[in-house]
TrEMBL record:
Domain of life (superkingdom): Eukaryota
Species in which this protein is naturally found: Musa acuminata subsp. malaccensis (Wild banana)
PANTHER family referenced in this protein's UniProt entry, alphabetically: PIRIN, PIRIN-RELATED
Record's protein name: (wild Malaysian banana) hypothetical protein
Pfam families reported in the protein's UniProt record: Pirin, Pirin_C
Annotated ranges, domain Pirin N-terminal: 90-184
A Gene Ontology cellular-component term: nucleus
Alphabetical UniProt keywords: Nucleus
Length: 357
């Protein structure tokens, strides 16, 4: 029985149906200076770090000038092209692609689309956090520690994999189920922490509407309102919708890396004279203390603004394992192979979906 379970662990690793790295080989990247719930209960805290994220908004014609000493502009634009992942799922990947390997502390951003029976069956993680934000439909999560739940459109799951999780992520509604999944790196001191979950239903996510701007505050702060989500790696995550003619000026901690991902419409980012950027583009922002955005089109503009404090540590990745040295990666593979040091429950666990096959 032990031998069979050991083979099972290694066999899954050899052909995992998970959101993988661009090449399924180890890669080393130096730190880049710019580049509750069914799942458990814990105390939510404000994220550490500098979060003076003052935000203002106005309609075109108000001529409001943002008080940024060093406004951010678009330093790089990456189109997220569709590719196959998991089992029959489709993702648009920008961060984590060949065009943008990572943006410290962010390892990957996928806009995913999946319809049953496709999905992301049983697969492991170690050394980072996954943030799943549903846009349409629903996704059911189940892991080897007995946690199970479903998040629906507008809901959020913030999973800290830490020393190890094996789980499945499968569509829960008929038709197309879409969302964003962001991978956030953990510092070397946190990579082997105990796994944990934070989950917010749509109705519990803080929201501000003002002057044609609607912002959902997933992490961090905007318009003086702070999210209850605790971010192990200091992070801000804001979902903005700007009506035609609206503009917004959002402060971002100056020493953080930040980017925008456009979900719908087109907008002008950073420089009022810049050309509009359109949906499915990731915009890497230059260093600075804030971002200005203008919607000069006739349709709503929806985008997420995400920023994080760089870890400035080596990144060594092999598929779903992200550590700081090659030796730690080899140890992660060994721990998974032999179901130990965080993967003990793998010996006797299959998700319900896997058991039915």
């Amino acid at each position: 029985m032990t031998m069979r379970m050991t083979v099972r662990c290694s066999a899954i690793f050899s052909n995992l149906p998970f959101r993988s790295s661009p090449t399924n080989q180890s890669s080393v990247v130096a730190g880049i200076p710019w580049s509750s719930s069914v799942f458990g209960h814990f105390k939510s805290q404000a994220a550490p770090g500098n979060h003076h994220t003052i935000c203002s908004s106005s309609k075109m014609g108000d001529h409001e000038t943002p008080s940024f000493e060093k406004p951010r502009h678009v330093a790089k634009k990456v189109l997220a092209r569709s590719q196959q992942e998991g089992v029959g799922a489709s993702v648009r990947r920008s961060i984590g692609s060949g065009a943008l390997r990572n943006l410290d502390p962010f390892l990957m951003l996928d806009e995913f689309s999946v319809s049953a029976p496709a999905g992301f069956p049983d697969h492991p993680h170690r050394g980072f956090e996954t943030v799943t934000y549903m846009l349409q439909g629903a996704s059911t999560h189940q892991d080897f520690a007995g946690h199970k739940g479903t998040i629906r459109a507008g809901d959020l799951q913030w999973m800290t994999a830490g020393r190890g999780i094996i789980h499945s992520e499968m569509p829960a509604d008929e038709g197309e189920n879409t969302g964003l999944q962001l991978w956030i790196n953990l510092s070397s001191k946190d990579k082997m922490m105990a796994p944990r979950y934070q989950e917010l239903q749509s109705k519990d996510i803080s929201r501000v509407e003002k002057d044609g701007v609607d912002v959902r505050i997933i992490a961090g702060e905007s318009f003086g309102v702070r999210s209850p989500v605790y971010t192990q790696t200091p992070t801000m995550y804001l979902d903005f919708t700007l009506q035609p003619g609206a503009q917004v000026h959002q402060r971002v901690p100056e020493d953080w890396n930040a980017f925008v991902y456009i979900l719908e419409g087109e907008g002008v980012f950073g420089d009022p004279k810049a050309s509009p950027a359109t949906s499915h583009h990731t915009l890497v922002l230059s260093p600075g203390d804030g971002l200005s955005v203008w919607n000069r089109s006739a349709k709503p503009l929806r985008f997420v603004l995400i920023g994080g404090q760089p870890l400035n540590e080596p990144i060594v990745q092999n598929g779903p394992f992200v550590m700081t040295t090659q030796a730690e990666i080899q140890k992660a593979i060994e721990d998974y192979h032999y179901c130990k040091n965080g993967f003990e429950n793998a010996r006797h666990w299959r998700s319900q979906q896997q058991q039915q096959q």
